[in-house]
Write a structure and sequence with these properties.
By secondary structure, this protein is α/β, with parallel strands linked by helices. 32% of the residues lie in helices and 25% in strands. 38% of the residues are buried. The chain binds adenosine-5'-triphosphate (ATP). Adenosine-5'-triphosphate (ATP) binds next to strand 2 and helix 2.
Length: 272
């Protein structure tokens, strides 16, 4: 057992995540296999793996969309020290941005309404939603923080992918979550959009929240992320310090391909 697992949080300051022996089975297949992973409050972590390795399933297990196989020996799944969560409270704690969410939001809804709708866990504002002046002030504050106030009245379906991605970060931030979880965040962003996106995420990483980045692309790993977890075939394959984990040998074994890793100014790239 690693030191990180032994020391997962304390009673007064619990770990953001404590997972031990978590196995998830879907359609008769083990998609997570005895996963043990602990993430401290405020820690920034990249979870990297090939397509189909189980990254999104791991996140869906955190958000209670997928459930671990009950009865596994030594099974633990705690978030902020608690095993049982109301899904609504969990959504306030974990701000999630994914490609799936972007597809759902790509409609005739204004940016301002999409951000506000984070308060109601909806997409858009409906007649039964009571929007308070405090909520509007918070939405405006977030637009400013992310430097996207100029997009406020634009419709989501008219935005570029990069702009929309930053709006979704804004939606995820309304509740001031402890963790921002980004699932394949920079997919299909061009160089400039990727730069703006990274700058937004770096700002959030500097604000004391956890940034948990799920990706198969090394370029997404911002310098603030110091720990990397490699996932292969539903298992934790490597877990540790970024410099020690992101090696040619580890990445080659992870992707079953000869891979060369390059680092420049705190950013990484993989060549095959
Ligand atoms: N609900 C489900 N029912 C059946 N199989 C599933 C389900 N969800 C995930 N899987 C399978 O579990 C495996 C892991 O999927 P997952 O989406 O977690 O991978 P991933 O690492 O996020 O992949 P990608 O990088 O392509 O998004 C895949 O083989 C997938 O087909």
């Amino acid at each position: 057992m690693t030191e990180k697992l032994k020391n997962a949080g304390t009673e007064n300051s619990p770990a953001l995540l404590e997972m031990k022996n978590v196995t998830v089975v879907r359609s008769g297949k083990k998609i997570l296999d005895s996963v043990s992973l602990s993430i401290e409050k405020g820690e920034h972590v990249a979870i990297i793996g090939p397509n189909g390795s189980g990254k999104s399933s791991l996140i869906k297990t955190l958000t209670k969309e997928y459930h671990p196989l009950a009865g596994a020996e030594g099974l633990v799944l705690k978030i902020m020290g608690k095993e049982t969560w109301h899904v609504f409270d969990l959504r306030k704690l974990l701000g999630i941005v994914s490609g799936e969410l972007q597809q759902t939001c790509c409609r005739e809804i204004t940016v301002f309404d999409v951000i506000l709708s984070g308060f109601f866990s909806s997409i858009g504002i409906y007649y039964n939603h009571k929007v308070t002046p405090e909520m509007e002030a918070r939405a405006e504050e977030i637009l400013e923080f992310l430097e996207i106030s100029h997009l406020s009245d634009r419709f989501m379906h008219e935005l570029s992918t990069g702009e929309a991605r930053r709006v979704l970060i804004g939606r995820a931030l309304v509740h001031d979550p402890q963790a921002l979880i980004l699932d394949e965040p920079a997919n299909s962003l061009d160089l400039k959009a990727m730069h703006s996106f990274r700058e937004s995420v770096r700002k959030i990483a500097g604000s004391g929240k956890n940034v948990i980045l799920v990706t198969h692309n090394l370029q997404d790993v911002i310098p603030e992320i110091s720990r990397v977890v490699l996932i292969k075939e539903g298992k934790v394959f490597r877990d540790g310090n970024k410099e020690k984990v992101l090696t040619d040998a580890n990445l080659s074994e992870l992707f079953s391909l000869q891979v060369k890793v390059l680092e420049k100014d705190g950013y990484y790239q993989a060549w095959s």
